[in-house]
Write a structure and sequence with these properties.
heterodimer; A: 945 residues; five-stranded mixed β-sheet; 33 helices; 44% helix; elongated; B: 283 residues; alpha/beta; three-stranded mixed β-sheet; globular
């Protein structure tokens, strides 16, 4: 049932997504008004969709939207009002309930969550899977949409779920209404003036609602520029440390910038490796402008001759043919900087070369400029200062192909994306896990030290984004919900290059006229229309963390892979609020290119039907667990032998060990190049097992599993796909404590258990012990492959967002399971309410393994079942481990709940925790709370306010 | 106009230098102690120069030999020329440092932009520099150090410069060279193969490889000349029969086997004996 509903929903969502993806076209087609407004309309649509509401709405209320769009087109300013009004009306009814919802939200959510989550997850997964092959991007969108449906009665959660599940019932209407609500809210918001410096040196000013997301502003700018191929661009802002950071389109601007300084710069974010593949000249022109600046500033080093050559193309593009009669544009030259060390000689050379370009049109000159610039070795390389393990200063360069390591000007190493299994950072350490070479048996992890946590995170994000953009067919489903608590779920949320190219190919408009100016004075200021609520998601707003820290170099500090235990971990027995800041994030990057043809991805939601209340069931056990697992794990199976590029995020169990709190995602991408690597990868990655799908349960086991998983992988990896899967699944868990990880690696579980407990905020009802058991179980699993196969799935314990189970049929090829989607959906829902809601994810591990009592020492009892359920709300992530152990004839059920409350000042952690505990008690009336551990971690206020 | 990285293998000029009598006795050697036949070496060299000049039509600048520099015939080590920029090296062997003087003058006369390696901590032999047309690989060997590579990277900013450890043999190009655009000719020894792997890993570009049995035979001279197409100066079947047959399979190349038996005793390979320049590349 659910599934069906889900599918329907999915379809809708997809449609929405599609529409979103091709908004322009559609819009254009549908809309008559030909003006720039279209962009806005589109943008808005996208925003809406992405924003979560839009999709649903658009689908359901085409007319409406269209009207809105048209209006907006007509006059941007006016747009907002109408929508808002409409919204308001709608909203009015709903608003009342909303607040309440929030309050109850958690409870409701949980309950629903249990149901809906599972369902949703399944659906989501299915969606993702389905979409993954065909339309990778859609997955995300789906999620988004899910998230977007803001508030229905229940609030976000409810809404999303309902939409999906209920699908038809309220589906359309609800979504519609919801959107209005948001709009209304926004309407009330204050407007802020944003200053955006454009590539031609002019400034663009517009007003934006204070709560608007980055996306809104970005679209505004693109509209102003008449830019359609916008995926290569982004907005930057300077953080308090004067580092340029990319503005996250999915988050509120206000949350990202500091010091209320609404200054931004429009820049190229992803340098297209082959600019000639861009569709429009205007896009190339903007890229040229960026590169001219890069060259002139020295960021893009080049030789004297190249400087001159590039300069001459610039002259040709801006001034046309060299005119001997006319005085040379010396003035121009004087003003212009073509190179950091520009001199007379160079200028002469530039003129000389300029003469030779006679007859070249500006567009041709730009093309030539780009053809030369793209060959420069540092083209598109984003450099970050770091130190290697020995404390030697190096530079890490992120580019389309991978990660480059420079010492001074020399390239001393290179890690192509296909070689990288996982990317993570902890504190100021940045790690990449390298796929073993042909002759190597084990993966290796390379660590670098960055100046500080922010630098590491920024680098990590850039890596995530670049990999996603250049290597994936579609972006992984982001964990939009955002709580980064244990780990950032940050993912690239935009279109990938592949998607962008498709979109570009569909651009059907006469080449826009634009003026190439040498003067930087032309500035136009557009008044932004009031932002439409779409943009902001209350959810987003809540996010405490600023995730976007990108770019820039930072000084590196000497240590290298230091695994430090979290500095601040306090275990207290009082339920208090815990604020955890994401310290570490891990991304598992796996690219698999197997079958040339993209196989169909079938998302198999684990058969076990969702158990309504996972939690309750958990207690009992296994059955429920199964369900839980299902949720978590989605296995996509594709039969296409050919390389399929499925991008899904999965957490690999192996890596899970390492994943601190990060969610790992595995993306299978087909990369033509480096096939060898890919092949290898395939083996591992491909592992998806159909079997596992159902079986895969999530082993919530936190750290321990991961370790074991890794071990097993290495050994067995190639051999048994299943095992791998298992491992992967396991992976997801990331413990907050790095130390643990290390410990885990070296040793496995025992150590971990304790850690975990601390990490998770122990929740009352469940007995702590459960955790241990779980851990142990995992460990055992690792050891026993078979077990793994059965019980395999890792759930992500707390934050580890995604568990992927992949099973390959022998013939069949890769699938990706994205858990993230699920989460996202959940998150979305939650977000809507804005009130800290608890998402519940269930991870279940079932096996028979010896369990030790408290800490899996060894061989205690027989572990009958273990489940981990994780739920997330904006601010709260709850992980529940349920372990059933049979000892000497007695069965013991332990439930350990870990609640992570991510802090924003706005959030009342205590309250959230209290609610969580309350809920737990309510859920398990027959159990007693034996222990509450509060682990409070406060983070750098800097990053996340 | 010729853009960046256009015309790999296109040369108009070559700089060579005569063989001093001191070559036989005083030239530096890695291992081999077999006696060098000075007359034989000179004959080989004459043939080499003749091919460049007559058969291939390059403008050959012949520098006089200098008895105080026994190794001076190996001009490659004294300068690295790419495009219109010439980097005057600081050879790793102290006895050879003076060889760069005359080379510098010759290159200046050709109107190249001269970059000198003045850092006393830097050493670089041109034999450690492999230019593939898209990027540089610099072997870190007994003769070339990191600093030297850095200066090279600074001189040729357009290109990526990756370092490759050279643990065996004299130079990086003692076991490899370019056999065409995107084609690396590589020896079959373990160190050679290892170095190739390193280069492949470090590069954003893909290279085909042509493996020859003998490391020393992997050094050949590739050119792409107007009216002649792909030209390859390579070892003879008399000296390296097994490797020569591999070269003979290159159907698209104009193959010119050149005997190098005497200079090889001094670790001198085919690329060592000339500095190739494309004057018209100057934009």
């Amino acid at each position: 049932m659910t599934t069906e509903a889900g599918s329907e929903t999915e379809v809708k969502e997809k449609a929405a997504e599609e529409s979103a993806a091709e908004p322009e076209q559609t819009e254009k087609a549908s809309e008559e008004s030909p003006e720039p407004a279209n962009d806005q309309g589109e943008e808005k649509d996208k925003e809406e969709k992405e924003g979560k509401e839009g999709k649903g709405i658009s689908k359901y209320l085409p007319t409406w939207l269209k009207k809105q769009k048209s209006q907006s087109q007509t006059s941007p300013t006016k747009e907002a009002p109408p929508t808002e009004e409409a919204v308001t009306e709608v909203t009015a009814n709903q608003e009342g309930p909303v607040p309440e919802v929030n309050g109850h939200a958690e409870e409701v959510e949980e309950k629903e969550a249990a149901k809906s989550e599972q369902v949703n997850e399944k659906e989501a997964e299915s969606d993702s899977n389905a979409s993954a092959d065909t339309e990778p991007a859609k997955e995300e969108k789906v999620e988004e949409s899910a998230e977007s449906h803001p508030e229905e009665n229940k609030g976000i959660t409810g809404g999303a779920e309902e939409q999906k599940q209920g699908g038809e019932e309220e589906g359309g209407q609800t979504s519609i209404f919801q959107s209005p609500l948001r709009l209304v809210r926004k309407t009330k918001m204050k407007l802020v003036v944003c200053h955006v410096s454009l590539l031609d040196g002019t400034n663009f000013t517009c007003e934006v609602e204070k709560r608007a997301k980055g996306q809104f502003l970005f679209f505004k700018v693109c509209e102003q520029l008449n830019l359609m191929e916008k995926d290569y661009f982004g907005l930057t802002y300077k953080d308090n440390h004067e580092h340029e950071c990319w503005l996250d389109p999915t988050k509120e601007i206000k949350r990202q910038i500091r010091s209320n300084n609404w200054q931004f710069a429009f820049n190229v974010k992803f340098y297209p490796p082959d600019p000639s593949l861009l569709t429009e000249d205007i896009t190339r022109y903007l890229l040229c402008l960026q590169l001219r600046e890069d060259v002139a500033s020295g960021r893009l080093p080049c030789s004297f001759v190249t400087h001159a050559l590039l300069g001459s193309y610039t002259l040709q593009a801006e001034f046309g043919d060299y005119e001997p009669d006319q005085p040379r544009p010396n003035d121009y030259m004087g003003q212009r900087t073509f190179a950091p060390n520009q001199n007379k000689e160079m200028e002469e050379k530039i003129f000389e070369l300029h003469k030779s370009h006679r007859g070249m049109t500006p567009a041709q000159a730009d093309t030539q400029f780009l053809e030369n610039a793209k060959k420069l070795s540092m083209y598109g390389v984003d450099l970050h200062h770091a130190k290697d393990s020995e404390g030697v200063d190096i530079m890490l360069g992120v580019c389309a192909n991978g990660l480059l390591v420079y010492k001074d000007r020399l390239r001393i190493n290179r890690f192509a994306w296909p070689k990288i299994l996982k990317i993570s950072y902890k504190r100021n350490n940045f790690y990449i896990k390298i796929r073993p070479g042909e002759t190597e048996q084990f993966e290796s992890t390379v660590g670098f030290k960055l100046q500080n946590h922010r630098s590491a995170k920024r680098l990590w994000k850039v890596c995530v984004e670049n990999h996603s953009f250049f290597r994936l067919n579609a972006a992984e489903a982001p964990a939009k919900a955002r709580f980064l608590t244990l780990g950032s779920k940050f993912r690239y949320s935009g279109r990938t290059q592949a998607q962008s190219r498709v979109a570009s190919s569909l651009i059907d408009r006469p080449a826009p006229n634009f003026e190439r100016t040498s003067s930087k004075r032309i500035s136009r200021s557009l008044d932004g229309a009031p932002v439409i609520s779409i943009t902001e998601a209350s959810e987003n707003g809540r996010d405490p963390h600023l995730e976007l820290h990108s770019d820039n170099k930072e000084v590196s500090a000497p240590q290298t892979e230091a695994s430090a235990a979290d500095s601040t971990a306090c275990d207290t027995k009082e339920p208090a609020k815990t604020t955890e800041v994401e310290i570490e994030e891990t991304v598992v990057v796996q690219e698999v290119s197997k079958a040339p043809k993209p196989g169909l991805v079938t998302v198999t939601i684990s058969p076990p039907v969702d158990p309504p209340a996972a939690e309750q069931e958990e207690t009992r056990g296994e059955q429920q667990q199964v369900k839980a697992q299902v949720e978590i794990v989605a296995a996509k199976e594709t039969k296409a032998p050919p390389r399929e590029s499925v991008s899904s995020e999965s957490e690999s169990e192996d890596e899970a060990e390492y994943h601190p709190n990060v969610s790992a995602s595995i993306c299978h991408t087909q990369i033509p190049e480096e096939e060898e690597e890919e092949e290898k990868e395939k083996e591992k990655e491909v592992e998806v097992e159909e079997k596992s799908v159902e079986r895969d349960t999530v082993a919530a086991v936190p750290d321990a599993p991961c370790l074991s998983a890794e071990v097993s992988q290495t050994v067995e990896a190639a051999t048994s796909q299943e095992e791998e899967d298992v491992q992967k699944k396991t992976t997801s868990e990331e413990m907050e404590k790095e130390g643990e990880r290390e410990a885990e690696e070296s040793t496995e579980d025992p150590m971990l258990t304790p850690d975990e407990a601390p990490n998770g905020h122990a929740l009352p009802e469940e007995s702590v012990t459960g955790t241990h058991t779980a851990t142990t179980a995992t460990t055992e699993e690792d050891q026993t492959p078979k077990m793994n196969g059965d019980a395999p799935t890792l759930a992500e314990a707390e934050h580890r967002p995604q568990v992927i189970c992949c099973s390959e049929p022998p013939v069949v090829k890769t699938e990706m399971v994205t858990i993230s989607d699920t989460f996202a959906a959940q998150k979305t829902e939650i977000a809507t309410k804005e009130v800290p809601i608890v998402h519940t994810e269930t991870k279940t591990i079932t096996y028979e393994a010896a369990q030790l009592d408290g800490n899996g020492d060894g061989e205690p009892g027989v572990l009958m079942t273990a489940q981990t359920i994780t739920s997330e709300s904006l601010c709260t992530t709850t992980t529940t481990h349920i372990t059933k152990t049979l000892k000497g004839g007695l069965s013991e059920t332990r439930i350990e709940k870990r609640i992570v409350i991510t802090g924003d000042c706005d959030i009342d952690h205590d309250q959230a925790l209290a609610q969580a505990i309350k809920e737990a008690k309510e859920q398990h009336p027959d159990m007693s709370v034996t222990r509450v551990v509060v682990h409070k971690e406060t983070e750098l206020a800097e990053e996340e306010d | 106009m010729a853009g960046l990285m256009a015309g790999f293998g296109l040369y108009t000029h070559a700089v060579v230098r005569g063989i001093p009598a001191s070559l036989a006795k005083e030239a530096l050697r890695m291992g081999s102690q077999s006696e060098v036949d000075l007359a034989g070496a000179r004959r080989e060299h004459e043939a080499y120069v003749e091919v460049l000049k007559t058969r291939l039509g390059l403008e050959v600048v012949e520098l006089p030999a200098d008895e105080s520099f026994p190794d001076c015939v190996f001009v490659e080590d004294a300068a690295v020329v790419c495009g219109d920029t010439a980097l005057i090296t600081r050879p790793g062997a102290e006895s050879r440092r003076g060889e760069t003087e005359i080379m510098k003058k010759a290159l200046m006369d050709l109107n190249l932009n001269i970059v000198e390696m003045t850092d006393e901590k830097a050493t670089l032999d041109g034999g450690d520099v492999l230019f593939t047309g898209r990027e540089f690989f610099v072997g870190l060997s007994k003769r070339t150090n990191q600093r030297g590579a850095e200066i090279l990277a600074d001189a040729f900013k357009d290109y990526a410069v990756s370092t490759v450890p050279v643990e065996h043999g004299l130079h990086l190009k003692s076991f490899c060279s370019m056999g065409g655009p995107g084609l690396i000719v590589i020896g079959s020894s373990e160190p050679a193969q290892k170095a190739l792997k390193t280069m492949q890993q470090m590069s954003d570009h893909r290279y085909d490889k042509l493996t020859v049995a003998d490391d020393l035979a992997a050094n050949c001279v590739y050119m792409n000349l107007p009216n002649k197409g792909h030209v390859l100066l390579h070892c003879t079947s008399e000296e390296w029969p097994e490797s020569a047959t591999v070269f003979e399979k290159l159907k698209d190349h104009m193959l010119i086997p050149l005997s190098n038996g005497e200079k090889v005793k001094l670790d001198g390979a085919l690329t060592c004996c000339s500095v190739l320049i494309n004057k018209k590349a100057n934009i």
